[in-house]
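A common beginner's mistake is to predict each chain separately and then try to dock the pieces by hand. The better habit, illustrated here, is to supply every component at once so that their relative placement is modeled jointly.
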Amino acid sequence: MKYLNEYRNLEATNRWLNLIHKTITRNWNIMEVCGGQTHSLVRNGILELLPEKVRMIHGPGCPVCVTPLNLIDKAVELLENNVIVCSFGDMVRVPGSKKSLMQAKANGGDLRILYSPLEAVDVARENPQKQVVFFAVGFETTAPANALSVLQAKEKGLKNYSLLVSHVLVPPAMEAILKDELCKVNAFLGAGHVCTIMGLGEYYPLSAKYKIPIIITGFEPVDLVQGIYMAVNQLEKGIFEVENQYARVVKKEGNLAAKNLINIVFRVGSRQWRGIGEIPDSGYVLQDEFNEFDAELKFGIRHIQVPENKTCIAGEILKGIKKPYECNQFGKNCSPVNPLGAPMVSSEGACAAYYHFTNTV
Amino acid sequence: MNNRAENKTINLSHGSGGLMMRKLLNDVIFKAFDNKYLNRKHDGALVKLTGEIAVSTDSFVISPIFFKGGDIGELAVNGTVNDIAMCGAIPRFLSLSFIVEEGLGLESLIRIVNSVKTAAKNSGVRIITGDTKVVEKGKGDKIFINTTGIGEVHPKANISSEKIKPGDKIIVSGCIAQHGMAIMSQRKGMEFEADIKSDTTNLNFLVKDILDAFGSKIHLLRDPTRGGLAAVLHEIAEDTQTGITIYENKLPLEKQVAAACEILGIDPIFVANEGIFVAIVDSDITDDLVELMIQKEKGKNTVCIGEISQDHPGKVVMHSSIGGKRIVSPPIGEQLPRIC
Ligand code: SF4
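With all components supplied together, the output reads:
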C-alpha cells in the first residue's frame, strides 16, 4: 500500500496541479479513454481542482458501456434456455432490450457472477450435463485470461464450455473518435493497463497521423494530474508525442506472454460498439480453429439483433461529443436506479459518474 | 441400513413434529440453550422487563454459512443484539428461529447452535423462545436464521435523529469493510488468498459504557451493516436534512481490507460491517468519548471521521485525501466487482 500512497498524496498532486495552472493559457479538451480513469477523476474530486481551461472528456473505455444491446440479449437468451451463463459482476445490471441478466436470473436463470473466466472452466467441469458460457466482455486487459480459459477447456477436452465474445480494442476506438467530424478532443490520456499488455506500439502512428498528444496514464490521482500536465504541456508547446507517464508499470513492448496467448486464440475482427456502431478491426473474435468455443455459433444466436434505444445518446457521450447533462433524459428518466443506457449503469460510466458528481451542491 | 447416514443430515422428518423432531430439539436445541424461561416449554415465553422496551427482528441468510471470523449463528445473535444496542437499550432476551434445508449436515447445525449459545452468553442475552422448520432441498440455502431481540432502554439514553445538529461529530468505532470483504474473499473464485476476518461481535457493552458516561449527549447510534458506512450516513443525511462531511484520510481501514477492495474495485464505504457502530455525538464530548472508547478492546480503533454541517443538506460529501471533494451517493444494489 505504501506504493499506492505515493500516488495518492496531497503534496504531489498539488505540485502537478500548480504546474498545470502555470502552464495553461488556452482551452483544451482532454479525453481520458478509460472508465477507470473517469472513475478516479470523479472519486478523488480531481475535476474541480483543475483549471477551467481544462475540459476533461470521458471516453469510451468502459467495457460495460460499449457492449452492444444485442449481446446482452444473446446472453439472456442463453440463460433462458438452460445454459449456465457466467459473467463479471458489473455486466449483470445492464439493461438489454427487454431485460438485464439480473432479471433473467430472478426468473430462474442460472447466472454465476465470477471474478475470472478460469472459474467458468471449473463450473463447466463440475456440471458436465450442462452447457456453460462465459460472457467475455472487456478490452485488451481481460483478453489473455479469456484466451487461457479456452486453452484450458480444450486441453481438458471439455465440450460444454464456450465464450460469448464481446472484446473491443482501444486504439481503433480512439481513431473512430478522431475521425468523427464533431470530435473536439485535443489530447488523449491512454489507458495504462491496456498498454501494460499491448505496449505502446499502436499509439505512435495514431499520434503522428492525427497530430495529437497521447499520454499513457495510470489511475491514481497523482498519475492523472501528472498525465494531464504532460498533455497540457505538449499542447501549449504545439507538439504531439506519445509519452509514458505510467512507466513504472507499462513497458514499451507490453507483456509478450499475454499478447502471445491472445494471438493463439483470437484474431482482430470487426465489432459493434454500443452507441457508436460497427468499427472495423476494433475487437477480437475467436480464431476459426476455436469455433467450437464460440457460443454464438454453438447455440445459433448470431441472428439476434436489436436496434439501440433511440432516447439514449450513449454514442455521443462515449465519443465525448456531449456531456451527460446535455442528454435530456439525464437525471430525469435515467438514473443509476433506473438506467436507460449503459453509461448510467456501470459505476465507471460517464453518465453515472456525472450523476453522482454533479449532484453535489 | 442407512440409519447412521440419515442421522447425520437433516431431513424432512426432522421438521415433521414427530419423534425425530422432538429428538432433534431435545438433543440439540434445548440442551444448548437450557434456561428457566425456555425450559417451561410453553408456546411462548413469559418474562419480566421494566421501563421502555426496545424490540428488533432480523433474518440472516448468508452464504457461506461458515466464514473466517464467525458463522451464521454468531451473526444472528450479534446482529440483533447490536440492533437493540443501537436503540440505546440493554439487550435481554432473544427468540431464535431456524429454517433448515433438507440435507444440511447435523454436525453443521450443532456447530451453529453452539455458536449461537456462545454468542448469546457473551452478550448476556437469553434465548427464550424459538422455532425450527425443515424445507425441501432446493427450497432454502442450507440454513436461514431469524432472531428477535428485546431489551430495556438505558435510563440515560435519549437516542433520536431529531437531536442531530450542525457541529455534531461523527464517530466510527472500528475498521470498516471487514465483514463484507471476509465473506467476499471466501466466495468461490476469489483470486487471492486474503486473511480477512469478519468483525462480527456484540457491541452492547461498549454502547452501555458510553451511555453510562455521556447519556443524552449521544444523539444517534447506527450499525452500518448492509450498504456499509455510506448507506447509514446517507439515510441520516436524508432523514434529518442535514449535511454530512467526512474525510477520506480519517476512515479506519485495515491494510489487507484496503488492498482487497483495491483489487476488486470495491469502495470500502459501501461494504458491510458487523462489529462497528457509528455514533453522532455532541461536539463537546468528542475527545472524551474517543478517549474512553479506545481504552476498550472493541473500540480500540475508534475515530472521528467527520461532522454534521449546515451546507449541502441531505447529502454526504467526502473530502478526498488529495484535497478534492465528492458526493457519496447511496449504494444502489449489491456491490459487484468491476471488470478491469
Ligand atoms: S443519461 Fe441515460 S439516457 Fe442519457 S446518455 Fe446517459 S445513459 Fe443514455
